[in-house]
Amino acid sequence: MAALLPGEWIKNWEKGGKSEFVQLCRALSENKNHDVGFRDIQQALYELAYHVVRGNLKHDQASNVLGDVIEFREDMPSILADVFCILDIETSCLEEKNKRDHFTQLVLACLYLVSDTVLKERLDPETLESLGLIKQSQQFNQKSVKIKTKLFYKQQKFNLLREENEGYAKLIAELGQDLSGNITSDLILENIKSLIGCFNLDPNRVLDIILEVYECRPEYDDFFVPLIESYMYMCEPQTLCHILGFKFKFYQDPSGETPSSLYRVAAVLLQHNLIELEDLYVHLLPGDNAIMEEHKREIVEAKQIVRKLTMVVLSSEKTEEKEKEKEKEEEKTEKPPDNQKLGLLEALLKIGDWHHAQSIMDQMPPFYATSHKPIAVALCQLVHVTIEPLYRRVGVPKGAKGSPISSLPNQRAPKQAESFEELRKEVFNMLCYLGPHLSHDPILFAKVVRLGKAFMKEFQSDGSKQEDKEKMETLFSCLLSITDQVLLPSLSLMDCNACMSEELWGMFKTFPYQYRYRLYGQWKNETYNSHPLLVKVKAQTIDRAKYIMKRLTKENVKPSGRQIGKLSHSNPTILFDYILSQIQKYDNLITPVVDSLKYLTSLNYDVLAYCIIEALANPEKERMKHDDTTISSWLQSLASFCGAVFRKYPIELAGLLQYVANQLKAGKSFDLLILKEVVQKMAGIEITEEMTMEQLEAMTGGEQLKAEGGYFGQIRNTKKSSQRLKDALLDHDLALPLCLLMAQQRNGVIFQEGGEKHLKLVGKLYDQCHDTLVQFGGFLASNLSTEDYIKRVPSIDVLCNEFHTPHDAAFFLSRPMYAHHISSKYDELKKAEKGNKQQHKVHKYITSCELVMAPVHEAVISLHLPKVWDDISPQFYATFWSLTMYDLAVPHSSYDREVNKLKVQMKAIDDNQEMPPNKKKKEKERCTALQDKLLEEEKKQLEHVQRVLQRLKLEKDNWLLAKSTKNETITKFLQLCIFPRCIFSAIDAVYCAHFVELVHQQKTPNFSTLLCYDRVFSDIIYTVASCTENEASRYGRFLCCMLETVTRWHSDRVIYEKECGNYPGFLTILRATGFDGGNKADQLDYENFRHVVHKWHYKLTKASVHCLETGEYTHIRNILIVLTKILPWYPKVLNLGQALERRVHKICQEEKEKRPDLYALAMGYSGQLKSRKPFMIPENEFHHKDPPARNAVPATVQNGPGGAGMPTSLTINTVRLEEGTTEETDKLKEKSQGVVKVINKTVNATPKVTTSNGNSASNSKIIKEKDDKEKSGKEKDKEKKDKTPAATPEMKALGKDGKDKPKEERANKEEKAREIKEKTPKSDKEKEKVKKEEKASKEEKSKTVVTIIESKSTAEKEREKEPSRERDLAKEMKSKENAKGGEKVPVAGSLKSPVPRSETSESEREQKRRKVDTHSSPSHSSTVKDNLNELKDSSAKHYINHTTPTLSKSKEREVEKKDMDKSRERSREREKKDEKDRKDRKRDHSNSDREVPQDSTKRRKEENGTTGSSKHSKSESPSDSPRLNEKEKEKNKSKSSGKEKGDSIKAEKMEKSSSGSKKESRHDKEKTEKKDKRDSAGGKEEKKHHKSSDKHR
């Protein structure tokens, strides 16, 4: 520190140094900063004195100046004494004596400035002695020791209680007197002071006594608190705290127990701030560290208990129970030492000192304090008091009185809550400290929950200001926190209190499910780990759950259910988690578990829903089995459980539905399984591919019929559950989103999800997605009101173009909307004007349809390219997609079936003696009501269907525009309508088939039924291969229904004539649009139709064999499914059936080890196919192949109204046409039609020409069969040849049927080689063809050369050569023919003209036909092999049969008819010539020399040129086109020398290449053969022959 006294001042002391020093001291003493001035003055004085000691300044100069300075400060003498003290010490140590002398002189000079008492205090005794202030330093020392001893060590004699008992007795009397009067604490305090003074009482002891008395008189807070407060002014502040501390310490020995009164006194003093908590807290035991350790120990113990419970203990249960009991006893004996902190805390809570209580709890681990029941109860009581006014205002339920709780007496307790805001500030905090231990007070729990409910009501009502809203939001989040941290954990600790659970649900149901599920999630996954108690509870719950689940069976559902219920009231999350884990492992638990859940509370059901969703969303679980081809069983079990439990109990569905929607958004479709199950169980809408036809039929009726007969399980009482499902969907706007997501996800499954997945699984997922869509859409359609539906589903163009919904799904969703809309409009119109006439009603219905559908017609135009609408109208498209089976037909048989069932039920009820009468009555009433409903529904549907058909009749003319070609129209129809819809659902499959039939029946212009069916059956490979499993099943159903119709027509000429004979759909010459098609010559005749059907069966076989031989999983599986579905109607022909059987057998062998599912399918089909075998028939019974008969008839007859071969060929041609050549074909058809017309005219001109040839009827039969055989092999050849030469555009067109081309060529050139190849179905056929052809040629030669008798004998020989079976066939046919003489049925569309035919043969044939078709009863199984071989087999046999002459024919008839036949022949020849001319004329007009015109000319020329020429003469007529030449080649190859053979070959070629050509060629054969026979044999034979040909027809 720098010197304050410069050396110059000392040197010039007298001159200026002294004055400078004085000024310095004055300045320093005036300094405002007291401490700084004090130190500086000390230093200045010290420096001055030090100069004196060193001798630089004289002591008198110094004493003078000190005298001047001493007045500047009051404490200046004391400062100077300090300086002397320091110098005394310093100088005493110095050796230089003069300095010590200087010091003593200075002190002596200054004695007048500092009092000697101060110096005696501070200077050393020796110095004092030298100064003369004391006599002897030794004596002075002794004296000071004595004084100190007296002061500090000698104990005063206090008046303690026993010594001064009178004073203390008076004190106690003062404090213990009756305080109820006017006595105040101030008065008593004065008396106490007097007593202390009088009796010399110890003040601390007095304070202690005051506290003791206060402890005993706790009710006098108002007296004692002010008394102590006043008394404390006389004591040190810490005294009170110390005294209390000593009191607490007194009770701290292990056996001591601190009295509650002491805690209370301490608490009151704390509340009045007479002591500080920090001061008192240190006196209390146990220490905080001990508390922490205890808390940790509790957690460890809890975990150990959990471990014990979860461990598998193999010893008997009894020993475990004993151990547990021992543990409990030990716990009782080890009573924990008194916890004074908790005691004080409890006292604080009881008096309402929340502030200090909170401080204490903050020092401890969370929830440690409240885990002690007294504290929890005390805190609960405090909360009761605090919430009382608010609870009374808003929380008390209506009608409840409740017991009001009085407020705490002291003013310092927390303020009672009057509003929710105050509740948040005060009470929520208290509740948070309570945590799970609110469970100690269920009443408070209920109050808090009710307040929560009241708040939610207020929160959800609108109309508050923005600020209020923000406050409410804060409050709401606080309420959620309280629920999470307090209410749910407390519920876990309550002992199965169902009321609390329901009470809590009252509040919970006001939360959105997102909040609820969040809370359940926290409760389940976090809460149980936070408190030792909850950890134990969790373990005990699981243990108990295991115990119950082990014993749960169907038989003990009730008792087990009650136990589950009890357990679930408190710990639903843990219980359900365990139950669900068990269900996922053992699906047989589902039913008993579902039944046992009936004792749950609403909250538990909601928790169950959450647990299910959590289990479904478990990321650790694989959704597929290890083989990656099937969905995991755990997921299937959960889905099944979902459906059952959601149906049976009132569980909210929103969360589950939203979960499924979210999964779909994420592109995951596995979870659709859940939606499928839920809809199935809750709405009773089943989706299954395994429906029987009866069920399917029932599904086309009304809702009641569907419920009764449409589903496997009789799903009853779904009204409530389906209503719940509907409400959930509508409330959360999930109905349409789910539909759209599913519709989009179908493609997502393939293109997004299905990337790495197994094809089989992709198919499964696609099916699941699609089925669920159909099911869900069905549910919405039947459950949503019209308004709801229309409001939610956008128009069709928006669905497709904006939402990118596939068209089939979009129409599926819109369809119910149209139906609803139309019916509501119709009802409006009916109400508007009441006309009861049926016509009026129909008119109104049609009007309402137009109103509703007009916008739809507009909307659909945007769905496809403009050129689509050239062929089909938007109206037709919309009509097809908007109708359902319900609109087209009434399932009368289903209604009858269900009504009969009910009648049987009622009879059974009547007969039941055991049933009590009242139950009988109820049941009967139910059945009667149901019966009435069904009948009413049937009537309603019948009226509806009639209206719809009327509407369609009016619409149909505008349906098909066919601006390009009919072929193109059919293409569009199949592509845009039939195929997408027939695989949409089973009912849609049936609908498509029915719709095609309906369009046909309505005689819709431009609709070629033949083309349509031909397209459907011709090549099913691609369609089958691209289906999923369920789609294949539906496609099979569609084909089955189509085949059913075809088979019905095929079975009986009468049915065919009635339903097809005169219908434009069976026109074989397709004219320009607008042609009425009334000419019979253009119709396909019955026999040719049978040929066409055979061709379709053949095509189906071919496709099936192909699919079975690919080795592809999908191909094989799908074709087997399809074949199983069409078993009732296919295969009908024996050889096709055998071919299938061989292929399927091969599959069974190959796939047994590799792909068990294919093996199972194949085995199933194989078995069913075998059972169908007895109903299969040889090919000759399925359709008749008799070329001789045809040839025997003159051309005129053939082309007569009976429907010539040419038209047939046309039909099939058109089926085959390429898009490019369709128009040409149409022109061609027109031409050929014209030709046929000419022929018709001529035919009509010669009314009754006999159609029999010189040969016997059996002969004609034989030749027919031969011809058929040739055909079966040569049809293909023709196809080939048609393609190869391609001489005319038509030929090119025909060439489309090119698949068979190579085979055909082989047929011609390498017949033998083909025989060897078994796999190509042709080889066998070819073999037999060759043989038969040879035979035929021989027979024909013999016929030409020899007389009638000779020819007969040859035939006989031939027959002998044949196997006996063939002979029998021929005989059978003959006998039938004889038996039936006299039924003449000229049929439009038959092979021959309406010339009188031998009726016997015809009727026989029809009998046979009926036989064939009546055999078709449903049975399912099929095999695919060498169909074509067998085709040829059978055809060969036919051929041979027919060639054998039948001598058994009645000769009389032959003789009679000989002459007539001859005359007929002549007239025919004439007609032929005329026809020829007409045809030539027409041909000139045509632009192209197509095959059909050529054909006709061929026929003409043949007929003209060969009328009377022998069979051997080859066709020399100008109609020998390339095709003819090919036929001739074929003739040569087969070594048959007859012209009829050439014709037959021709016919076959055409037949194969197109449906029409097949028939045509047959006609040609017939013509030539008949002619030749006529020449060679007499009229008798002609008659017989005619009979036989008729028969074959």
As residue ranges, the low-confidence spans are 1072-1078, 1187-1330, 1338-1403, 1408-1453, 1485-1574, 1576-1593
Distance between the termini: 146 Å
Count of discrete alpha- or pi-helical segments spanning 4 or more residues: 77
Mean pLDDT: 75
Please state the CA-atom Rg, rounded to the nearest Å.
Answer: 58 Å
- What's the helical proportion of residues? over 70%
Outline type: elongated
| Broad structural category | mainly alpha
Largest sheet: none
Q: Give the tally of β-strands.
A: 0
Question: How much of the polypeptide forms β-strand, as a percent range?
Answer: under 5%
Could you give a short description of this structure?
The chain is mostly helical and 1593 residues long. It is built from 77 helices and no strands. Residues 1072-1078, 1187-1330, 1338-1403, 1408-1453, 1485-1574 and 1576-1593 have low confidence and may be disordered.
Structural summary, described in words:
This protein is mainly alpha-helical and 1593 residues long. 72% of the residues lie in helices and 0% in strands. The protein contains 77 helices and no strands. Helix 27 packs antiparallel against helix 28 and helix 63 crosses helix 67. The protein is elongated and about 195 Å long. The chain starts with 6 loop residues before the first helix and ends with a helix. Residues 1072-1078, 1187-1330, 1338-1403, 1408-1453, 1485-1574 and 1576-1593 have low confidence and may be disordered.
Secondary-structure blueprint:
Elements lengths: L6 H5 L1 H18 L3 H21 L4 H11 L6 H18 L3 H13 L6 H7 L2 H7 L5 H17 L11 H12 L8 H15 L3 H14 L4 H11 L5 H14 L9 H12 L5 H5 L6 H23 L6 H17 L6 H12 L2 H10 L9 H23 L24 H15 L7 H19 L5 H28 L4 H11 L4 H13 L6 H20 L5 H14 L1 H14 L4 H7 L5 H15 L16 H16 L5 H12 L6 H12 L9 H7 L3 H8 L8 H13 L3 H19 L5 H25 L2 H7 L3 H6 L5 H26 L5 H23 L13 H9 L2 H4 L3 H20 L5 H39 L10 H17 L3 H16 L7 H10 L2 H5 L3 H23 L1 H9 L24 H25 L2 H13 L8 H21 L1 H17 L6 H4 L4 H6 L2 H4 L6 H12 L5 H24 L11 H27 L5 H6 L6 H9 L1 H6 L6 H23 L2 H14 L2 H16 L19 H16 L12 H17 L7 H35 L5 H16 L15 H12 L5 H15 L1 H22 L2 H14 L1
Helix pairs in contact: 2-3, 3-5, 3-6, 4-6, 5-6, 8-9, 10-11, 10-12, 11-13, 12-13, 12-15, 15-19, 17-27, 19-20, 19-21, 21-22, 21-23, 22-24, 23-24, 23-25, 24-26, 27-28, 27-29, 28-29, 28-30, 29-31, 29-32, 31-32, 32-34, 33-38, 34-39, 35-36, 38-39, 39-42, 42-43, 43-44, 43-47, 46-47, 48-49, 48-50, ...
